[in-house]
């Protein structure tokens, strides 16, 4: 194309920006029976479960006898390891050993509250790690407030660095999030236009048939089905507690789990019980999303005292996601779980589950180390240490050592 010098062209300005930020997440790791972990030998560690942050799996390694043999078990070591495939993963880290006296004097090592001279750390490959070889002198740790009832507790925060490019947005209109749930909930709370009353025990609840029918196939059939009665103004329910039905209505109108403390003076233990009853009610009235929300909440809350009861519930109400999680947790803690009251109930109500539990125990015993994946030498899994004097070391597979000041 030949351009005449007399022709004029309009130069268009353009712009873009590179944005660097972090995807942050925290994992809580508790070590019970700390004294039993001692004596493993230098270089041997207790591992947390893997956790995912920023699209990568991570794990915490705690070395009760230290990582280096030359320290003669004088120090404990703590490291955060990249436990999934990845190359040149850049991240910030924070390790916090929790003060269990209630004074809040936690031992914290963090990259988030200061600028790093050389930028974030780069983990080269799976098994690369960052941490402290001399995290704490062991004798001092064992007489400190960090150790209570033979238990240590720590928080690990990982911030995975991500970079993205954004171009200019020529026009934009802010759209607020939907408040439909709040609006419907207001109708329920204010009892505006209610056309049905539920008698639950000694309490009564007003509601709207059309809303109930839209949310629950059971209510739809009851009020507008072939055998339903759309003119019925009062319904008596005998197989659900008032507090559970109130929580059920809260979800139907707001599409959210209720705060059980607002419904009843709930403790963590009673919250679990209410969630179990709410799951049963959700299954009864065909509220699949509420059922899944209850499964997720129970998954977060169950303990060795409650997992057997939750497992029985999952079996009775066909909770396909919750049941295998309960089986794995119970199998991993079988000795303690078998002493619980819930296990006695499980034996009586669902004896067939005992065989599945034994099969899961066998699978847990045969399961290989999830973090290691395959055998690697100590030198191959060590990529980055942060020594007690604040100097980080990076060792590559060829053995070349690079030191950097933090």
TrEMBL record:
PANTHER family tied to this protein: BTB/POZ AND MATH DOMAIN-CONTAINING PROTEIN 1, BTB_POZ AND MATH DOMAIN-CONTAINING PROTEIN 3
Domain BTB: 194-257
Recorded superkingdom: Eukaryota
Family label: Belongs to the Tdpoz family.
Domain MATH: 24-158
Organism (species): Salvia splendens
Extent of the signal sequence: none
Protein task: May act as a substrate-specific adapter of an E3 ubiquitin-protein ligase complex (CUL3-RBX1-BTB) which mediates the ubiquitination and subsequent proteasomal degradation of target proteins.
Pathways per UniProt: Protein modification; protein ubiquitination
Protein name: Speckle-type POZ protein
One of the protein's GO biological processes: protein ubiquitination
């Amino acid at each position: 194309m030949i351009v005449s010098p007399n022709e004029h062209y309009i130069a268009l300005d353009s712009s873009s920006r590179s944005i660097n930020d972090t995807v942050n997440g925290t994992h809580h790791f508790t070590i019970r029976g700390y004294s039993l972990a001692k004596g493993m030998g230098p270089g041997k560690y207790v591992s947390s479960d893997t956790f995912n942050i920023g699209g990568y799996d991570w794990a915490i390694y705690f070395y009760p006898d230290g990582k280096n043999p030359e320290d003669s078990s004088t120090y404990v070591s703590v490291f955060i390891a990249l436990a999934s495939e990845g190359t040149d993963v850049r991240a910030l880290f924070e390790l916090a050993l929790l003060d269990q006296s209630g004074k809040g004097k936690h031992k914290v090592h963090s990259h988030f509250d200061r600028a790093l001279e050389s930028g974030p750390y780069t983990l080269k490959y799976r098994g690369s790690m960052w941490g402290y070889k001399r995290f704490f002198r062991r004798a001092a740790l064992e007489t400190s407030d960090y150790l209570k009832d033979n238990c240590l507790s720590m928080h690990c925060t990982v911030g995975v660095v991500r970079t993205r490019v954004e171009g200019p947005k020529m026009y934009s209109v802010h759209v607020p999030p939907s408040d439909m749930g709040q609006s419907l909930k207001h109708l329920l709370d204010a009892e505006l236009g209610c056309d049905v009353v539920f008698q639950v025990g000694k309490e009564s609840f007003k509601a709207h048939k059309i809303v109930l029918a839209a949310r629950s196939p059971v209510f739809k059939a009851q009020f507008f089905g072939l055998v339903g009665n759309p003119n019925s103004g009062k319904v008596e329910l005998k197989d659900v507690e008032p507090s559970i039905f109130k929580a059920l209505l809260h979800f139907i109108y707001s599409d959210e789990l209720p705060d059980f403390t607002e419904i009843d003076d709930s403790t963590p233990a009673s919250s679990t019980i209410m969630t179990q009853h709410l799951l049963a009610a959700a299954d009864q009235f065909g509220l699949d999303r509420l059922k899944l929300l209850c499964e997720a909440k129970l998954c977060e809350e169950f303990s060795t005292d409650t997992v057997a009861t939750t497992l029985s519930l999952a079996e009775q109400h066909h909770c396909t996601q919750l049941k295998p999680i309960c089986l794995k947790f119970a199998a991993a803690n079988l000795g303690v779980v078998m002493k619980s009251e819930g296990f006695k109930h499980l034996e009586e109500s669902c004896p067939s589950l005992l065989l599945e539990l034994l099969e899961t125990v066998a699978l847990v015993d045969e399961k290989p180390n999830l973090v290691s994946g395959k055998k690697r030498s100590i030198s191959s899994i060590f990529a980055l240490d942060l020594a007690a004097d604040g100097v980080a070391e990076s060792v590559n597979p060829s053995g070349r050592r690079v030191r950097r000041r933090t």
